[in-house]
Amino acid sequence: MSKVFQNSDLAIADVFESASIMLGGFGLCGIPESCIAALARHGVSQLTCISNNAGIDDFGIGILLKARQVKKMISSYVGENAEFERQLLSGELEVDLIPQGTLAERIRAGGAGIPAFYTPAGVGTEVAKGKEIREFNGKLYLLEYGLTADFAFVKAWKGDTMGNLIYKGTARNFNPMMATAGKITIAEVEELVPAGTLDPNEIHTPGVFVQRIFIADKNEKRIEHRTIQTESHAG
């Protein structure tokens, strides 16, 4: 059966109410823009979104938050989204804030079939509340559980028709590990090539982890904070 879908709307058409979804990216880099836009059109709600961050008010997951499609956010950084803040403070949105390294490892563990692990991150803080704590070699560790999701949306630079993926630059962050942790992984790519044409040594995500792939129709690639050097400091 072909993994190639004609567009984003077809690729995400079976995302259901109250589904859990992992969304790759770091800041606004490497986010699955096309899948997010299609999900907004699809209109399902009560979603649990697992992502490093919550986008900004009018881009990324911010689009889904504004449309009230998200019930719960599991993430490590949410500081750029005023609507997220408003929903959190008003009690409209459930939030599970996780240290960034712990979030990455929980996703990696889930994708590797590891149910739980111990980490020192968060010991003695709010993060530790209600969690099992054990001592190893004189140091305290928290028990954390692996994360999986009904769907994983990832963005890659190039992919082939078998679902093999290559990421470019900072987009190679949460995308590869999320691709392994979704029951159904949907990849949007900037360039889609025939199977067998990618150098096996350059593949970051093997096609066995990807169930659907399509050519992205949104590649806006916004910059979260553009910083430039002023002329007065150029010398």
From TrEMBL:
<dbReference type="GO" id="GO:0008410">
    <property type="term" value="F:CoA-transferase activity"/>
</dbReference>
<dbReference type="Pfam" id="PF01144">
    <property type="entry name" value="CoA_trans"/>
</dbReference>
<dbReference type="InterPro" id="IPR037171">
    <property type="entry name" value="NagB/RpiA_transferase-like"/>
</dbReference>
<protein>
    <submittedName>
        <fullName>3-oxoacid CoA-transferase subunit A</fullName>
    </submittedName>
</protein>
<keyword id="KW-0808">Transferase</keyword>
<dbReference type="InterPro" id="IPR004165">
    <property type="entry name" value="CoA_trans_fam_I"/>
</dbReference>
<dbReference type="InterPro" id="IPR012792">
    <property type="entry name" value="3-oxoacid_CoA-transf_A"/>
</dbReference>
